[in-house]
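Dear Dr. H.,

I hope your travels went smoothly. While you were away I took the liberty of generating a structure for the chain from your last submission, since the lab meeting agenda had it listed for discussion. I wanted you to have the full record in hand beforehand rather than looking at slides cold. The sequence, exactly as received, is reproduced here:
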Amino acid sequence: ENLPMAAPQPVGPPGPAQPMAPGRTSLNVGGGPAAPPAMQGHPDGAPAPRAAGPPVTRQPTAEDRQARESRNQLNKETLHNFREYREYFDSLDVDAVVKWGPRDVADQFLQPMNLGALAQIFIEHKISGRTLLGLTKDDLRAMKILAIGDRVLIANAVKYIAKIQTRKERDRIVWEGATPSGGAAYYDSICDCILYKCFPCACALTRWRLTPTGIRERKDPPPCNACCMQTVNDYKDIRFLKDVDWRWEFQFLCWCKRKQMLLLFDHDQTVGDADEAHIAHPDVGDELVAEIQALWAEARLVAD
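The corresponding predicted structure, in token form, is as follows:
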């Protein structure tokens, strides 16, 4: 029987792609099965990356709060234990600490705090007195001192010794003296010289004290204080020192001469108000001026 034959399909380049429905995407290339919706949008078929959002803040758990409370309690107990040894450190000669060897550190630093078990560790790491003053908690951790309480106790002790050393250096007396004193040239007149030599209880004195932080002037009334005078104190910060020098000053028609030092201070650098201090004393000289200049340079270096 003659059956109707199907019309042959045209062979040629493919026609234009058919438009897809709105909201639909397809990566079905090459006639394979279409990728599931969750994997569409990535050339390798992997899930599309999630949009970046704000970082998620981890809320502290009960274990975190308990650990923090334990650390706080440990710090309080360690501080309480350190207060028991503070009296010992107050009586310690801090100037001798820098001369300690590792064995001295073990005997005079660790043993008084009942930390003799750590003596061998300090000796093995050659912790001398000078090195001790620079120890930190990280250094103690690197030395394999595992107990947190021991590390905190040692760190507090080192900090306290350094504080004592700083306070002692700040209060160190570089020079002190009283005016008028010395020979007749250091008095304003012959009458003053006779009065001070014969009746010292009726004469006022000005006392000077030079420290690494400044110079203090104290005007004391006469011991008998018949005029009801009061003590007057003045302090000049050495950081505001502008100039210092000394000279010979002739007295009594050039019959004698005395040493006088002049210190010029600027207490308000914006306005430029200057303050002077005149010290007539036998100790005045190049050595004292050089000492003051060295203190001024060190104070300015620390301030800057």
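Two observations you may find useful: Confidence is low (pLDDT under 50) at residues 20-32, 37-42. The chain has nine helices and seven strands.

With kind regards,
E. W.
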